[in-house]
Amino acid sequence: MNTSIGYPVPQRDVSIKLIHKAAAALLGGFVIFLFLTLTAVFTLQIAYMGKINPGVSVSGVDIGGLTRAEASDLIMARLTYPQEGLIALEGEGQVWTYAPIDLGLILDYGGTAEAAYKLGRQGWPWQRLAERITLMRSGVEISPIMILDERITRARLDEIASQINVPMKEAALRLEGAQVIAEPGQVGRILDAETTLAKLRQPMTNLVDTSQELVIQEFHPAILDVSSQADTASKILSQPLTLQVSDSENEKLGPWEISPETLAGMLIIERTSQDGVDSYQFHLDENTLYNFLYPLTPSLKQTPQNARFIFNDETRELELVRAATIGRELMVEETIQQINEKIQNGEHSVNLVFDFINPEVTDNAKAADLGITEVVSQQSSFFYGSDESRIQNIQTAAAQFHGILIAPGETFSMVDNIGDISLDSGYAEAWIIYGDRTIKGVGGGVCQVSTTLFRTVFFGGYPVVERWPHSYRVYYYELTQSGAVNEDLAGLDATVYAPVVDFKFTNDTPYWLLMETYVDAPARRITWKFYSTDDGREVDWSTTGLTNTEKPPYPEYEKNPDLKEGQIKQVDWAVDGATVTVFRTVTRNGEVIYDDTFHTVYTPWSAVCQYGPGTDDYPPTGDKRDRYSCKIKGN
């Protein structure tokens, strides 16, 4: 028996056949689509050959179906913004108007038409077909091609800037003589062209009329207005500046006046800044003021002086004889500061500034508080034979020391307290020792006062700091109350010749010392008293007396044409020279406090004789001369 076997057809072969059929179908469809697309593109391209595809507009102007030239002309005719648009620029209260073309805006009509023509003509055929379909279905609007020539825009803005821009100016002050010149400041303005240009780009490129605020930068000066400062300076120079000592009627103490012209030369105008605010300030030059004020310092200085008293022996209290003087010293720097403060307030009268110093002893001092209880030393000297001028000088000098207080430990100086020895201060011309001659001079007789003080100090047991003897013996200082000469008083004299020759002593006690001076002119006596508290000191003294005596030289003879013929006049008197040493021992409770030696050498002093012309046998010579007088021996 024959058996046949059959095999099934493979499924893969069936699938492959199906795929081949599908691929063939797709390919056929694509070919058909491509054919149709190319046909459509070709057809449209033929239909609008050389023309802009339909549906294209430029800023609302339909240019579809037009040639490029026709489109360019139509755009030019319809888009007149560059020529007819309006751009208004405002700033600083002014308005500048321009057509956009004047600001550099130009429409590229040909370029815009060319760009429109290219729509639907670029890319693959299907891309061009799709773009053309879009154009026909919904249309496409493009913006015109514009050129903004910013060089033109900037040129126009520069023209505006020339009207707006102003430089910033600081206010200033200056002087012309005594006149104040104020120069006001000015706010600077600069047109910001770049920022303004940036604001103009959008409306101009959108073909929109616009009004724009110009962007202007302002630059404010630190000082704009100086009118008030100018007024202040003008007031300073409007009248003289008067400097004065408050409540003083002494003409030697001012006032001092500085003229406006001089003030103008001293006025400093200075720019300052405080808390970020600048301004002008004024002050007078400190160096110039210093040079003006400093020379006044010595004349304005007033040394504090204690009140002066006398001691009432009955009440045992002090009685005021001259009020205390408050010390005063000009404070130059503080005065300069006050002057500059006052002138800022428009004041033209300024009090000088002083440092006031109170004296140690005021008018209400009590004797017991000062330790003044009794007389502790008293001496008198006599001046018989003195003329009225010498007596006047003794009285004037003695009055300078009446009532003076000397503090514990203080060294007293006659020169510092005697004041000015001149005719203006009450002195007269009298005989004084000047060089090697006795002549008439202002203040003759003052040494009577210094000698009396020396003796009061000597016998009171106080330490002598400085003492100068006379060049030759003066008989006034050795006179006793009876008028006789007591040679034991030789070497107890003291001379004073301000400012180099002084007499000084120290109050070495713990108590104040009060000095009183009394001149009894009819009795030709001056008395000096010390009041204090007796501390128990005692004084022992001795003298060598006059030793090494030396006769004077023969007289000096001088011819004086003012004398009459035969007239002889003695103008100086001879005195023997001598040496004397005085010893003093001061003890307290048996203990030596001081052991002093005062050595004096008196120079022999010759007489001086004057004679008139034609005087017979004069001057004498040889043995005819007399040592002590102008007489001729034997006559």
How would you portray this structure in words?
The structure is a single chain. Helices cover 28% and strands 29% of the residues. With 635 residues, the protein is of the alpha+beta class. Strands 22-30-29-23 form a four-stranded antiparallel beta sheet. Strand 3 and strand 4 form a beta hairpin.
Beta percentage is 25-35%
Low-pLDDT residue intervals, each spanning 5 or more residues: 1-10
* Radius of gyration from CA coordinates: 62 Å
Q: Helicity range of the residues?
A: 25-40%
Which structural class should the secondary elements be placed in? alpha+beta
Q: Terminal Cα separation, in Å?
A: 230 Å
Which whole number gives the mean pLDDT?
A: 88
Number of helices: 16
Main sheet overview: 4 strands, antiparallel
Strand order of the largest sheet: 22-30-29-23
Structure summary, number of beta strands: 37
Apparent shape: rod-shaped
Write the layout of secondary structure elements.
Blueprint: H1 11-47, E1 56-58, E2 61-62, H2 68-78, H3 81-84, E3 87-91, E4 94-98, E5 105-107, H4 109-117, H5 125-137, E6 140-142, E7 146-148, H6 150-164, E8 172-176, E9 179-183, E10 188-191, H7 193-205, E11 210-213, E12 216-219, H8 227-236, E13 241-244, E14 256-258, H9 260-266, E15 267-274, E16 277-284, H10 286-293, H11 297-300, E17 308-312, E18 317-322, E19 327-330, H12 332-344, E20 349-351, E21 354-357, H13 367-370, E22 374-382, H14 388-399, E23 405-406, E24 411-413, H15 414-418, E25 429-434, E26 437-442, H16 446-460, E27 464-466, E28 504-506, E29 513-520, E30 525-532, E31 537-543, E32 547-550, E33 556-559, E34 568-572, E35 577-588, E36 591-602, E37 608-611
Parallel strand pairs: 1-6, 3-11, 13-20, 33-37
Antiparallel strand pairs: 1-2, 3-4, 5-7, 8-9, 10-12, 13-14, 15-16, 17-18, 19-21, 22-30, 23-29, 24-28, 25-26, 27-28, 29-30, 31-35, 32-35, 34-37, 35-36
